[in-house]
# Entry
Amino acid sequence: MSIDRRTEMTEEETAAFLGRQETGVLALAREDAPYAIPISYGFDADAREFYMRLVSTPDSEKREFLASEPQARLVVYDEVDDVYRSVIAIGPLEEIDPGELSVEEIQQYGEAQRPLFEIWPEQKGNLDIELYRLRPDSLSGRLIEIDRDF
# Structure
C-alpha cells in the first residue's frame, strides 16, 4: 500500500465536502488537558462557519471545558473506496444566545443533525443544550488517494 496522490482541497472542494458531511470530532484544550468528542454540525459555506448544539449535564467534563472558553479544533473526515478526505477547522468556539440568532443562523442549527453519538442516562430536564458557533481562523482540507496494488 502506498500513497499515490496527496493534495490540498480547494476552498470550493472543502466547502462541498463539509456540506455533505454532518459529523466530526471536536477537540478542546485547557492548560495541559485535552478533551475530544464526536459531534454533529451544520456548515454555512458562505460565512465559513460551523454551527452545533452541544448537550451536557451540569456537572460534566464537557461543561467544564466549554466554560473555560477554549480554542477548538474540529476534524471532519471520511473514506470512500481508496480516497480519504479530511478537513481541520481551528478557532474560537463561542456560545450563542438563542435570542440573538438571525433567521439564517437558525436555519444552520436546523441543518445540524441531532447529536448522533450521545445517549444520556439523565432525564431531559437535567440536560443543558447550548448553541455554539465555530468561526475558524484556519480551515484546510486534504485528499489522499491510496494505491493498494503497490
